[in-house]
Structure formats: structure tokens, C-alpha cells
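User: We ran a pulldown and think these components assemble together. Before we commit to crystallization trials, I'd like a predicted model of the whole complex to look at. Sequences follow.
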Amino acid sequence: MIWGALLYGVVNSIGLALMALGFNLTFGISGIANFSYGAMYVFAGYGTWMLFQKLGAPLFVSIPTMVFLTGLTGAIMYRLVLVRLRGLVISEVIATFGIGLAALELFRFMGLIGFEYTLPVLVEGSIQVGPFFLDLQRAFIIVCGILLTAFLWVFTRYSPVGLAFRGMAQDEYTALCLGIDTDKVAMLAMGLGGGLCALAAVVILPLGTISVDAGYDVLLEALAVCIVGGLGSAVGMVVASFILGMAQSMASMFMGSHWMMIVNLVAILIILAARPSGLLGKQKELEERI
Amino acid sequence: MPDKEKRLRKERLDRGIKARSEDIFALSSWKEISYLLAPRVLPLAALSFLALVLPIYWKKVLVTTAIFGILAMSWDLLVCTGLVSLGQALFFGVGAYVAGSLNHKLGLPWWCTIWTSGLLGGLLCSAILAPVLRLRGIYFSMVTLVVPLMLVRIIEATKILGGTEGLSGIQGFPTLTVELFLSLGMFLCVLFGYRRLLGTDYGLVLQGIRDNDRSVMSAGINVYWLKAQALFLAGSAAAMAGAFMTHAYMFVGMPVFALDYSILPIAAAVVGGMGSIAGPAVGAFLLVPLSEALRALGALRIVFYGVFLVIFVVGLPEGILHYLQRKYYQFERWVSVEE
Amino acid sequence: MSGKIILDVVELVKDFGGVRAVDRVSFKLREGEALGIIGPNGSGKTTLVNIITGFVKPDSGEVFFKGERITALPPYSVARRGIGRTFQMARPFYKLPAYRNLIVPLWSPRVRASGGKYGDREAVALDLLEEVGFERDSSVPFKPAGALPHGYLKRLELARCLAIRPELIILDELFSGLSLAEVASTVPIIEKLQEEGHSLIMVEHRLRELFRIVDRVIVLNYGQKIAEGNPREVMESEAVKKAYLGVEPEGG
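Assistant: Here's a predicted model for the assembly, 881 residues in total across the polymer chains.
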């Protein structure tokens, strides 16, 4: 039994990390908390479904297309709306929140609710891990998560664009002086965040149905992970995903699935009481730069 | 030497009548006094008129408008201190549940529960949100978004406070007239109270925290304690609104934490004009009747709010009230740029 | 000037990531004394001030004010005990008239605690502005702060600091951006503060004006204190010359 809980815990944790990846990246880099993140997730899900079911495009076409489209949406959102609001935190938050909300409720209005809205699993079958059987889709999630994190690590350390990202995260003015077009970089960051969000969506959504409420859930999960781990800290995000993922899994196994969300809330409250800037948050450093 | 292009800039000047009605000079003529009083008196007169003549259905809409107006104004008070709340539903819902519980468990009547729920609700919410005040504003926004959504799950899972069915059989108001005039009375109290508050030196300090909290801190003022106070002042009003609705519907359940109660105050404030207290009130009076008229569209309502939000935040960030104020007090003209 | 130590800074250290901004800096300030802190850009002067006033927590070291340990207290606690400071980048409340900018600091509990008159804040504000050089019967104090020229903004910043009636005043580059005439008119205000018994710390780049006011100077470079003494002897020191002017190339 414990084996099973542990295994699902790991899957859950990596799933959480995948979900939070895009959000954390956008915030850590361009400083924009993208409250339309949940809407992007659902958008990617429905979009892939449309391409796959209605247009008959094979998965290996519809998935990359949707990832690209979601990223594009993020970039366009930045270019059209957010760029006018840079620096006005209140307006940025309200704008992304408004867009996300409008999109999600539009999906609900269009009646995209039902069991027919599912994405097919990417890999059929299951493998045996110890005394337990793990379906391959979940194994795929694990692999995906690890690969993506590794790729991002390499990307932000060794590629010019990735380094530009990190430079901008540390000090925007200096980055500007060094010739980095911060608006383009921020747009790219929003696009990247959107793309990552879509990737998480197509990998995780096959486990259930695509629903509008998943949008709100994902936003909640991403926020919980980022609050516990500390905004802008990649390592913190991973650590937080595991803490929350394992705790959720245990709670689900022993107390019922309702309690998974409650774990999030309890974790948030504990963090706020004990270490408000998150486990590895850079809040303190950022606050000190007068 | 190339010809210098004739360049124009927009110049804004106070209208003559505005200048003449500054300070005590307003007393010099009826025209000046009415110029000053009109924006304050006319809406009040209109409100009283409507409260008396509207048919029953629209009277109920007026009640809802007043309540949402209170929510919007409480959101705006927080914004004046620099706090952006994405979850007014938290205050609203907590107030609603406290009122429901007080009435259900202890049998306290509505004229007792409303204000006690307001105070208790405000205290509770301020206590929950206090730890986040030391962090950057974005954390506050995130936590306000997350907590009401979580509370819904908790109620659902633990089945406390009536669980998914909620608490019903709550005492209602004796008559519609009482309900209407109580809501309007609360609305006006909050409107005038908040405006008065922001006009005092204390209010100035609160807005100073929004503008430059470093400067305020270096003057020896504990900004976190003041923010907590602002949270209490705003939260109590919103909690009272929630308590009122509990008695109006004679029921309290999970829907009190619905996103509607979080998003509409923001939409009303953005449309009406953030930071002015009166702006969100105007916004509420525009959006709530509009959404009633659009009731048939169901979920599309929230889509409208969202779209409105974005359009106004980008296109007319100052909001309708500020825009009207500007037009009322000033006129614009093009002048050539002096060399 | 009594011999009592009003500010005691002991071995302060602050690292930002890989950069050591303040490297074991110590100094003492006597009551009524005027101390200058100088050094090339980036030498840690403002960070030092931020640590003393509580905006930045040091990694190690202590700060004592009037014998009381104030290390790592939040900025409002430090201010309440009697340390006032100006900011290098003065950001007033742009939309408010100049004198209403002072309402906020006058609201501070410190004002009441130190026996200040707080009943009619507007009148006190206008008095304060006059003290720092705003012409009394002009429209200048009533103009929105955003419309004030730079020199007046700096004076407003000074007034804001004085509003809380501090015992120790820390001025962070008060003279920066001022014309010679503006500096000349500001110096008497500072000298008057000294006469009234305030202790002063001035972080400055404009050395000629600074040296007329202060009795003692410390020099920072790369976070370290490289010299301390009266202005004359400090400027003669080899280490200071090297820090400001650089080393002469070989054969030059």
C-alpha cells in the first residue's frame, strides 16, 4: 500500500512541478504573475482535443501545434495588453486575471463540459515497478518532468536567450543597458510560460477529462507550489512540488480525495506563519535592494 | 536651417466656475454653489427617487447593487493602501457564514448579526491575511485569490457549517422596504465614511503607504500595522455586506465564496475609477443592473466582466468617474509648444 | 558637543550574492558631531546607511544608538528612536502640494512622543518648509510636489526628515544635482541644525562643500573603511588618493 502511495506521490509531485513550471518561469523572469495561467492550460487541452477529434490531426501534429499556439497566445497577450501596463502591478494583475476569467467562463458558456472531452493517453500499457503496476502515461509524466526541468536548466545556463532571461530576472535596468530588449524577452518569457503550460496540459489531462474547473484548480496548484517554494526560485518550486505532492497523495489515500486541496491550504498557512517568503524564496534579497 | 514643425500639446485648465467656487468663494452665488453641490446632491436625489418608485423586481436589483457597491468600495479602500485583493469573496463569505451561524445556532436577530458579523468577519479575515502583509503586494493578491477557493473545498470536504447544503431557514427582513433602505443606508454610510476617512491625515498616511512606503517607514510609522488596520476597515464593510445577503436570501452556502463576489468589485472599480471610492460605486451602479439585464446569458456574464476589465484597464485606466470629473472641472485645448 | 557616543557601528558586514558591499566597517559618532562618509561610487556608502536605518539587515556586526542595540530593527523602529534620513532618490508624493507631503511624517508617533506640536499639522508643515528654505509667502509650498524644481525637492526631502524631530540626521547625497547657488543656500540650514545640537552624518560626493561642514570624515572603498580623520589629513592619505584617482601608470 505504501509503495502505491509513494509511487503516486512521485507522479503527483512531478505533475505539480510541471504545472507550476510555466507560471514560476514567467514570474521569475518578467515579474508578471500570469493569472490567466489556468485558462491557458484548459485552452491547450480543448485546442488539442479540437485538432485531434474534429480535424482528425494525428497527435504528433496537434500537440506541437497547440503548444505553439498557447505560447503564441501568451506572447500576444503580452504584446497587446501587458506591455502597456509594465510596472503597474495592480493593472497587470487585474488584466491577466480578467483575461483568464473571461476565457474560462467562455469555455463554460460554450458548453465544453462532458465526458467526451478527453485527450487520449500518449502511451498505452503499463510497466511493473516493484510490486506495483504503473500505467505508462504516468511514467511518461515522470520522464517528461525530468527531461523538461533538465532542458530548462541547461537552456538558462548555456544559451544566449536563457542567459538573457536570467539577466532580466536579476536586474531589468542593467539588462537594458547591456542591449537586452526587455520587452522582447518578457514577451518570450510569456510565450515560453504558455508553451510549458500547454505541455503540462497535454501530458496530464489524459488522466481525466478536460474541464473548465481544472483551469481554476491548476491556477490554485501553481500558486500553492510557488507560494510554498518561493516565487522565482526554481529549486524551491521542485522541493515544494514534492512536499505538496507527497502530502496530497497521502491525504488522498488515507482521508479521501477531497482533502488534497486542503493540504495545499494547510501548507500555505504553515509557510506564511513560519517562513513567509517561501522555502527558498528570494523575497528577502529583492526587498533589500533600495 | 530646416523649418521647425508646428507642434501642439494639450493644455488643461480649470474651468472658470471651478476656480470661482474654490473654498469660501463658493458662497458668493447660487450658480457656484450648485456647481459644487450638483455632483453630490443629484445622484442622492436620483437614488431616493428610484428607491421609492421602482417596481418590486428592480427594487431587489437596487438592493443587490447597493451590496455590490459596498464590496466594490471596500476593494477600493484596500487599493488606496496599496493592497490589491483578488478575493473580496473571502470577506463577503466569512461575514455571510458568521451571520448565518449566529442566527442559526444562537438565534440572534438580523439587526444584531449584521454589524457583529461585520466586525467579527473583519477581524477574522485580517488575522488570516496579516502574515502576508510584510511581503510584496503580489503575495497578498495571490493569497486572497487562493483562500476563498480553498475554504469552499474545506466546507465541501468537512461538511461543517452545513456543508454543501449550507444553512437555511435564516431569518429574513420584515419587509422589502426595510431591506431596501437598510442596504441603501449601509451603502451611503460606507461611501461617506470611507471618503471622510481618506480625507483625514490618517487617510493620507494610508495613501502614502501606497505611493512610497519606504518614505513612510523612515518617518517612524509602522506600515504593516496600518495595512492591517486598513484590512480590518475594508474587510468589515465587505463582511457586513455578506451578512446582509445571508438575511436577504435567508440562506448561506458555498456560493458565497463564488468568484462573482471577487471579480465584480474589481470590474466596478476599474470601470468606475480606482482610488476614489465614489468611482467603484458608480461602476457598481453601471455593472449590476447591466448584468441583471443580461441574466439570460448565464456564465457569459463573467465573460463580460473579464472583457470589460481588460478593455478599461488598458483603454481608460482612470475610469469613468475620473474622466467625468476631469471634464467637469477642466477644459482642454491645443496650444502650440513654446520655443 | 558632549563626549557621549550617540552612534556606535561595530564590524558591519553585508554580502549581496557574490559582492561584499560592506566589509567590517566600524566607527563611532559623538553627540553633536558632524561626520562625513565619502568614497567612490559603489563603495557601499548607501548600503551602510541602509543598514544603520534598518532597511537592510547586516550579515554580521552591530549598531548601537544611544547605547541601545538597534541592529536589524525594522526601519520604523529605528526612526522612532530618533534617527532620520533622507533618500538619495527623493520620491515625494507627486500629486500632493509640497506642504501636504509633510502631513505624513508629522502623523508619526515619534512626533507626539518627542513633545512635538501636532495639533495643526498644516501650520507646522508650513513652518518646517520655511526652515528649509521655502519662501514663506509665495505659492511654492502649495504647488504639487511633482511641479517643484530639483533643488526644492531636495529641501522637501530634508523637511520630511526633520519633521520627525530626529536626534541623528543622516543625509544621503543631499547636495547631488544642486547648483552652486543652491548648495550655498542649503549649507547654512545644515549649520543651523548643528548649532541646535543635532548629530549629523553626511554621505557626499561634493567634497569642498562637505569639508566646510563636517569635523571628521571616513572614506569607504569597496566596502572597506580605508581612512578616517579630519578632512585635510584624509585627503593627503595615499590610500584615498589611490581610491579616487587611481594609480599612476608606470613611467608616467
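The two ends of chain A are 53 Å apart (CA to CA). That may be worth checking against your pulldown data before setting up trials.

User: Thanks, that helps.
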